[in-house]
């Protein structure tokens, strides 16, 4: 029986770092045979000697032999075996683990056709796990741990239920290739999908592997994603199946992961069938948190329990560990919670209301966010193109204009200055009444933290870029909801058919804004931007706006068309 816990508490003093006990043996370019006779190349880092140990395995297209030179401020320092988004074997192996890296089919030194995040890749991953479990240096238990790509594929191979897979730690891992990765709110994430695939194609075709496997990235992968622009079955094998996922899960997200990884990690904790799951959310870059001593201790304690059978109490601790952001990226502290979303959340509506002419509180702000429903119905109209000068609104604007470099576009709403600190932690829902003079409308929503002087308080993004508090998106023709999966604070859009708009037809939409955490300081304002294109802090996760984005869009407020932002307010302790 677990002890009774308070509703929340600060994270306790860090647990001791396990002692290194073993020397490292490296076996290079081992053949891993798959069910269809294909062979993948793998490197195995294992404790020297004849013992049997659990395996931490990675399989993917990032090349097991490609050395990653980490930044100088990373806690773990460079060594010849550092590899992008994977564990450092010189830390893990001496502590009694085997680190195994496998070049996925058609990548690195493995022959074949590369198709990241496909059914074929997950089947190959299944076979690699079972191959590792049969080896004389393995105790029969395999765990998965890695960032991003090496987290996303954990969800997909878990769908296959390999018998020897005993626990996973998907560290910042998108879990739905449609909603989390390629089509945010039905809008194609052109910038990242295209650049990510082309970048790794170049690594194979133009880098050190040039000529070794010339057909490896020949699949028209980006075209396939654009072709499958509705979710009507093609993504079934490219998403996690929560209702079948029963193995222990430590799901780890990043508040800065809006537009890629955060959503998958919170959805996993809420919906995975597993009775043994934990959630951790931190902030900052893609890689700095993963390689901290604090994070490694979290990781190894979870694996020690599930892969080695050590009774270390890790599963008796509160299941949710959140880094509470207070603005500016420094001095943040972790806090334990017992559930997600937090049970004591006060779900609060902030209604959109236009300001009276001449009463705008700040420059480029068209409205207010207030807790009282406006009685009078009003409307705010803005250009659907987001452009204001000739020569910019061309067919090639996506590749020539950086988000945030455009003049003010769309409409912005903000609260009055905070009279006291206000913590917003959890999922966010933006409910709008809208219309357009076109047959469709793109909504790009951004939540910003604005200080007393009107300046943005930025956070550190996954790619070391500056990012705002949170983002959400919706193509209005994709407004159809799945009522069984939707929650009051997190809408679920079906994306299986389009509902075109009629000219000036007023419709109600719910825009999913990805989960966030921010303590808005006294005197600061929460600002909401509603824009027709990517706003500040979007790169590299920029989107393709279709050519129907012309004319004007309108947002309605008050009365029977009261639009509002539903925020998860966490009450202060008295």
Main sheet properties:
11 strands, mixed
Shape: globular
For the biggest β-sheet, the strand order reads: 1-13-12-11-10-7-6-4-5-3-2
Domain count: the total is 2
State the low-pLDDT regions, or none. 1-6, 388-400
CATH superfamily of the largest domain: Alpha/Beta hydrolase fold, catalytic domain
Q: CATH topology of the largest domain, what is it called?
A: Rossmann fold
Describe the structure.
- It contains 9 helices and 26 strands.
- Helices cover 15% and strands 30% of the residues.
- With 574 residues, the chain is of the alpha+beta class.
- It has 2 domains: 14-317, 3-Layer(aba) Sandwich (Rossmann fold), CATH 3.40.50.1820; 346-570, Jelly Rolls, CATH 2.60.120.260.
Gist of the model:
Helices cover 15% and strands 30% of the residues.
Give a quick set of tags describing it.
single chain; 574 residues; Jelly Rolls; disordered N terminus
What's the topology here?
Elements (H helix, E strand, L loop, with lengths): L7 E3 L13 E10 L5 E9 L5 E8 L28 H4 L5 E6 L15 H15 L4 E10 L1 H10 L6 E7 L5 H6 E2 L2 E2 L1 H16 L15 H7 L21 E6 L7 H10 L5 E6 L10 H15 L12 E5 L8 E5 L8 E9 L12 E4 L7 E6 L13 H4 L10 E4 L7 E15 L5 E9 L8 E2 L5 E2 L2 E6 L31 E14 L4 E7 L20 E6 L6 E7 L4
Helix pairs in contact: 2-3
């Amino acid at each position: 029986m677990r002890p009774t816990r308070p509703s929340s508490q600060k994270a306790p003093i860090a647990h001791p770092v396990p002692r290194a006990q073993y020397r490292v043996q490296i076996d290079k370019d081992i053949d891993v045979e798959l069910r269809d006779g294909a062979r993948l190349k793998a490197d195995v880092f294992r404790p020297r000697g004849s013992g049997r140990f659990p395996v931490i395995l990675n399989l993917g297209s990032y090349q097991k032999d490609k050395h990653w030179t980490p930044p100088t401020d990373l806690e773990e320092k460079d060594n010849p075996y550092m590899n992008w988004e994977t564990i450092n074997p010189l830390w893990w192996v001496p502590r009694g683990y085997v680190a195994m890296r496998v070049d996925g089919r058609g990548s690195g030194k493995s022959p074949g056709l590369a198709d990241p995040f496909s059914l074929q890749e997950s089947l190959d991953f299944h076979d690699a796990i079972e191959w590792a479990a049969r080896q004389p240096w393995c105790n029969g238990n395999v765990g998965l741990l890695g960032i991003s790509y090496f987290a996303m594929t954990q969800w997909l191979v878990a769908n296959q239920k390999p018998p020897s897979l005993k626990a996973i730690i998907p560290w910042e891992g998108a879990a739905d290739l449609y909603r989390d990765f390629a089509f945010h709110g039905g809008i194609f994430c052109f910038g990242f999908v295209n650049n990510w695939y082309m970048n790794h194609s170049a690594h194979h075709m133009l880098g050190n592997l040039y000529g070794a496997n010339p057909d490896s990235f020949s699949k028209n992968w980006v075209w396939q994603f654009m072709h499958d622009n509705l979710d009507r079955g093609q993504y079934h094998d490219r998403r996690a199946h929560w209702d079948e996922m029963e193995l222990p899960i430590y799901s780890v997200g990043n508040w800065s992961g809006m537009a890629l990884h955060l959503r998958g990690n919170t959805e996993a904790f809420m919906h995975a069938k597993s009775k043994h799951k934990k959630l951790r959310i931190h902030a900052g870059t893609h890689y700095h948190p993963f390689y901290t001593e604090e994070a490694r201790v979290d990781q190894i304690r979870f694996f020690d329990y599930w892969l080695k059978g050590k009774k270390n109490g890790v599963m008796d601790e509160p299941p949710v560990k959140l880094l509470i952001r207070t603005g500016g990226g420094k001095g943040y502290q972790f806090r334990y919670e017992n559930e997600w979303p937090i049970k004591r959340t006060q779900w609060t509506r902030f209604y959109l209301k236009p300001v009276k002419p001449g009463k705008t509180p700040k420059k480029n702000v068209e409205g207010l966010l207030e807790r009282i429903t406006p009685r009078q119905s009003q409307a705010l109209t803005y250009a659907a193109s987001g452009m204001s000068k000739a020569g910019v609104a061309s067919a090639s604007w996506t590749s020539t204009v950086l988000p945030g470099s455009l003049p003010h576009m769309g409409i912005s709403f903000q609260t009055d200055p905070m009279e006291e600190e206000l913590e917003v932690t959890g999922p966010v829902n933006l409910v709008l009444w809208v219309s357009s003079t076109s047959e469709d409308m793109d909504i790009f929503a951004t939540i910003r933290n604005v200080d007393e002087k009107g300046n943005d308080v930025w956070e550190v993004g996954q790619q070391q870029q500056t990012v705002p508090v949170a983002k959400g998106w919706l193509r209005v023709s994709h407004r159809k909801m799945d009522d069984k999966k939707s929650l009051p604070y997190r809408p679920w859009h079906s994306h299986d058919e389009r509902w075109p708009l009629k000219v000036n037809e007023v419709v109600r939409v719910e825009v999913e804004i990805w989960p966030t955490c921010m303590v808005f300081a006294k005197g600061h304002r929460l600002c909401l931007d509603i824009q027709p294109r990517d706003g500040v802090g979007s790169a590299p996760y920029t989107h393709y706006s279709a050519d129907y984005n012309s004319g004007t869009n309108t947002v309605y407020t008050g009365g029977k068309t009261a639009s509002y932002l539903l925020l998860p307010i966490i009450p202060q302790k008295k």
